[in-house]
Amino acid sequence: MEDTKTPNRSSFPYYYGCEGEQFSFYRIPKLLMTSEHFRKLSTDAKVLYGLMLDRISLSMKNRWLDDQGRVYIFFPVEEVMQMLHCKSEKATKLLAELDSKKGIGLIERVRQGQGKPSIIYIKNFAGKELG
Length: 131
Hints:
This protein is mainly α. It has a two-stranded antiparallel sheet with strand order 1-2. A hairpin with an 8-residue loop joins β1 and β2. The chain starts with about 30 loop residues before the first helix and ends in a 9-residue tail after the last strand.
């Protein structure tokens, strides 16, 4: 008789040989996890920052640079909600955690006007003396 209370732990296959190298991954900088400076930043905000860092490569391909040569991204609240499977309130809170106005300063959002997504500058997490 089969035990229906115990989940089937063998439902995922093993990796063999080079199969483990077939996926692309998002990177979350180790410093965000280890530095005392980023201790109060939520794990979800750190993941969002990693997603934003990944988006920079797309911006470079599209040549999204301002007059000073700074790369920027577009990452509307709706996309944050979709990628992190959360509601609008949480997505807005996570952006605020990262923002230079209300949060730690890892991003700077510049509003473009009604109906247009904000331009987001990703700040260099390692470019500041952390103390």
